[in-house]
Amino acid sequence: MLSTLTDMPEDVIRVILRDSDFRSVHSLRKVCYYLRNCIDDIIPEANLNSLEIYGQPEKVYIFYEFGKENETIEYRKHEKGCWVIQDDKEKFLDKNRFIDVFLNDLTLILKFQSIKLKKFRLRLDDIGEEVKCVVVNSLSEMLKSRKNQLKVQELNFDSVDQSDLLKVLLVSDCESLKTIEICTTDPFSEPPEILKIDKLETLEHWKNLKNIIIGKYVIERTIQEFSGYSRVFVKVQLITFVDLMNVKKAILTSPNFEILNFHYCQFNEQRQFSIEFGPPWIGDQDQYVNCLKWFIRIPNASDVLEISHFSRKKIFRFKKIRAERVWWEATVQD
């Protein structure tokens, strides 16, 4: 019989860690120095599906999902230290800055995660610029120190500064990333903020993307530059008739195309567009939506290209739909 925990063979500890979820491993690590050192040496797999970080003034949250379970940890600033709240349990850490405690735990999570994360979300705009810089720079250093680059399928960010996103992307795996979503915490700002993507576009990460979603920021690009992606939701300054024709031509032969949604600030060529595409299908018109639709048969496929213009919302949408979903009284163009 083992007399103490430290007499337990490492192979036994490995089996225990293998059959434990990350929440249990995280708790075991706090039991004693021996277990902490063993776990740090063994580096068990975290097996997380998603990791989300939300910052608020003087507090930050970590949400992570493993299997069908999820966990929330809150780190709250106190004048004498930090409150850590997990599983409805509160723990006060005297003389510890909340951001340092949070970063220490985040380091462990990233250290134990080797498989691909389906989603990695960073929402830090509300935490304050100074603390945000600390988190982004620290995250970049954590990812840089890994033996293997972190694999992420979907990255969700809320920064208007592409330099923050670059710090994360440059030290992450470029083959795994398929979706980038960039949002804004103030979608009603006037005039809308401009998001520069010139440096992002040079990365292999960007070139390998299938889906691009960019909140209310305005992208200084033509819509035809996004015609090679599967799913796009962006806002541009100007859409021209030539842009629309080029997008239509490109996606009719694109095997990856699903839906392109373009919000615009200016479009002054409605008459030329209507002449080229003919009378639209109106259907049951909603006065608040005011949507016109055109249907075009996709060559060598059973699908149809649906082009919608929501004039009140200033949106052009190109969507691939099944032929049977076309309204029976609508005309499908060849």
Question: Which structural traits does this protein have?
Answer:
334 residues; alpha/beta; Monooxygenase; 16-stranded mixed beta sheet; 9 helices; 32% strand
How would you characterize the overall build of this protein?
By secondary structure, the protein is an alpha/beta fold. It contains nine helices and 16 strands. Strand 4 and strand 5 form a beta hairpin. The protein has a 16-stranded mixed sheet that branches. It has three domains: 1-44, Up-down Bundle (Monooxygenase), CATH 1.20.1280; 46-220, no CATH class; 221-333, no CATH class. The radius of gyration is 25 Å and the shape is elongated. This is F-box domain-containing protein. It comes from Caenorhabditis latens. Pfam families: F-box (PF00646), FTH (PF01827). Residues 2-51 form the F-box domain.
Lay out the secondary structure.
Blueprint: H1 10-18, H2 22-28, H3 33-42, E1 50-56, E2 59-66, E3 69-78, E4 81-86, E5 89-94, H4 98-111, E6 117-123, H5 129-145, E7 152-157, H6 162-169, E8 179-182, E9 194-195, H7 204-207, E10 211-219, E11 231-238, H8 241-251, E12 259-266, H9 270-277, E13 291-297, E14 303-310, E15 315-322, E16 332-333
Helix pairs in contact: 4-5
